[in-house]
Design goal:
phosphoprotein, CheY-like_superfamily, 5 strands, Sig_transdc_resp-reg_receiver
């Protein structure tokens, strides 16, 4: 089976944000995997096949930065877009040191997020298929 779709991992503790991004990117033709927290995201990443991560900066338990540090151990080159609230902007310096080039502030413009995802994936070939790996 040949499948050229990209797989996105959305990590956010807010159900409304996860649902909005799941619906929008599914409509755009992406395969979307969701996680509620850092440990769940890392478990899903260990299966391989994720092409890009949309990661919330502030989550209960393992923070977005801690999750990002662990993501970098698994895949140093995986594109990550951080989603931040206004009061978390000071944490972006650390995220940039960990290779994050793009972030969006909540509440974000969905069209901006779509543009960033397309731009980051433009020169990247789809990774191994996530569902084939775990299926």
């Amino acid at each position: 089976m040949t499948d050229c779709r990209y797989y996105l991992l959305v990590v956010d503790d807010q159900a409304g944000v996860r649902r909005m991004l799941l619906e929008a990117f599914t409509d755009d033709g992406y395969e979307v995997v969701v996680a509620v927290c850092g440990p769940e995201a890392l478990q899903k990443l260990k299966h391989g096949g994720i092409d890009l991560v949309l990661l919330d900066m502030k989550m209960p338990g393992m923070s977005g930065l801690d999750t990002l540090r662990e993501i970098r151990k698994l895949d140093p080159d995986l594109p990550v877009i951080m989603m931040t609230a206004y009061g978390e902007l000071e944490l972006l310096g650390e995220a940039k040191k960990l290779g994050v080039r793009h972030y969006v502030s909540k509440p974000f413009d969905l069209q901006e997020v779509r543009y960033l995802v397309r731009a980051l994936l433009a020169d990247r070939r789809p990774a191994r298929r996530y569902l084939e790996v775990i299926g």
